[in-house]
Amino acid sequence: MSEKTSSPTPGRRARPGLRPSPAAAVPTGSQRKVFTVARLLQEVQQQLESGFGTVWLQGELSNVSRPGSGHLYFSIKDSRAQIRCAMFKGRNSRLDFEPAHGDAVLVRGTLGLYAARGDFQLIVDHMEPVGAGQLQAAFERTKRELDELGWFSTETKRRLPSMPASIGVVTSPTGAALRDVLHVLQRRYPQAEVVLYPTQTQGIQAASGIVKAIEQASRRQEVDVLLVVRGGGSLEDLWGFNERSVAAALRGCAIPTVSGVGHEVDITITDLVADLRAPTPSAAAELATPDSQALRVASERQQRNLVHAMQRRLDDAQRTLKSMDIRLAARQPRKTLAARARHVDELDQRLNRATLQLNRQRALKLGELTSRLHARHPRRSVSEMTRRHESLHQRLVASMGKQLTAAHSRLQPAERALHAVGPRAVLARGYALLNNDKGLVTRVSDITKDSSITATLVDGDIVTRVESVRRES
Fold first, then answer.
1. What is the CB neighbour count within 10 angstroms for residue 256?
2. Rg over CA atoms, the chain
3. Strands (E), 115-245
4. Which of 91, 30, 87 lies closest to 64 in space, CA to CA?
5. Torsion sign over Cα 7, 9, 10, 11
6. Phi-psi bin for 325: left (phi > 0), alpha (psi -120 to 50), beta?
7. Do 283 and 299 share a domain, yes or no?
8. Residue in 69, 86, 95 with CA at minimum distance from that of residue 123
9. End of a domain among 98, 129, 160?
10. How many alpha carbons lie under 13 Å from residue 218 in its C-beta half-sphere?
């Protein structure tokens, strides 16, 4: 390698505060060691590998990219610095989670330089989530598995009852979620009975407690809809609602379910499996119940409409009565009209009282009809139809027997008459049928001398030969 002497650049000023040493100012050929860029990077690479070896690094992912080659490029940073990283396809294909921007990870690799740009980087051969990153990876894995099983399908979601008589709540008895739910139910639908299934909603035992509460509600079936609720929190706080056992309990619950876990931005496995997802516990209570005030307003509106309709009919009747009064004035039916007027007044009062009781009567009638509907089981109709079928079968058998007997009675005289006029009866009286080789013999001209004749009698045939033929003149 040839050495080159560089001369000072004209007009270039020394950096303030730095003085060139005599050796630097007047270098000699024996004191210089000049590298090519590639050679320098190669030696730095060797120093990095021999000096550090395999290193473990923890930080937050940023600038994550995966080009068509399948390699994974990203940076790992903390609050003060960052380092570029590369994880080649053969290594990142073994990851059981999808790295994303902002994930907290722990990586293992070797330090190196990217010679094309002279960039300092870490070649990663292993990566695992840390803290919330592990939980997020577990969440995504469970979500993917349950989605493949069809547990999130909208086709399997059940409709909630429009007017539930009782509402179950699975939550902590001391949490704010229960207070929020009770406040909403008291405001919107106070007539519903509320049944609490208490459980822990945070901690190691949360998932098993939630499962027991859901299974208890499903087994008792004492409520019409079941709310599974909890207030907001971190991913760790809400983790009990991401366990597969909780999802399985919801999946097998015999009661329609509403999930209201966390805040609106929080999504749990429970939200995805339940029949209906609410953004908050308060919203879960609202979605599960109608607004009693709106129901009351609608009922009062229907009551007013009914009163107005009946009043119009009453007014029409009164106008008709007045018209008849005028027409009958000449006949002086005052007593009858006065009695009818009093009757109309009584009907008006009864109508007003009946209208006030109409809504209560409708509710009672609905309960009665429901009881009657349960009492009318199809088994009674099936039993009645079975008895009717057996009766008709017996009648059919008897009728067919009578018809066969009558037909047999009609057939016997016809059989005797047919037998009387049949050829066998004629033969029995001494007659015979004659046949030759040409067929039935009916005339003397059909017979010749020495021909063979077969005579058929009632009990057999006689074969004879003709000796002579005599014709009547």
1. 19
2. 54
3. 119-129, 166-171, 193-198, 225-230
4. 87
5. negative
6. alpha
7. no
8. 86
9. 129
10. 16
Cα 390–Cα 391–Cα 394 angle in degrees, nearest 5: 85
- The type of residue at 367 is G
Dump pLDDT digits (tens) for 47-82. Answer: 877 778 888 898 889 899 999 888 999 999 987 889
Cα angle, residue 87 at apex, residues 73 and 133 outer, rounded to 5°: 80
DSSP per-residue codes, 365-422: HHHHHHHHHHH--HHHHHHHHHHHHHHHHHHHHHHHHHHHHHHHHHHHHHHHHHHHHS
Residue with tokens 């509106």: 301
| Residue 107 near residue 127 (C-beta atoms within 8 A) | yes
Contact 454, 434 (CB under 8 A): yes
The per-residue pLDDT for 209 is: 94
Element (H, E) at 352: helix 334-375
Within-domain flag for 30 = no
Nearest to 262 by CA among 245, 281, 276: 281
Which residue, of 78, 101, 129, is where some domain finishes? 129
Please calculate the CA angle 122-127-129 and round it to the nearest 5 degrees: 130
The pLDDT tens digits of the residues spanning 396-444 come to 998 898 888 888 888 888 887 887 777 777 787 788 888 888 888 888 8
Per the structure, how many domains does the chain have?
Answer: 4
Which pLDDT score is estimated for 255?
95
- Tokens 């903390």 sit at which residue? 78
Instruction: Check whether residue 276 and residue 195 sit in a common domain.
Output: yes
Taking the CB of residue 181, how many other CB atoms lie within 10 A of it?
Answer: 27
- How would DSSP label each residue in 8-38? PPTTPPPPTT----HHHHS--GGG-----HH
415 vs 425: CA distance, rounded Å: 13
Element (H, E) at 269: helix 269-273
Separation of alpha carbons 229 and 1, rounded Å: 77
- The residues of the chain scoring below 50 in pLDDT are 1-26
Q: Cβ distance 61 to 103 under 8 Å? A: yes
Q: Are residues 190 and 235 in the same domain?
A: yes
* Rounded Cα–Cα distance for residues 91 and 457 (Å): 114
Distance in angstroms (rounded) separating the CA atoms of residues 465 and 215: 110
pLDDT at 118: 79
Q: Structural domain of residue 70, as residue ranges?
A: 37-129
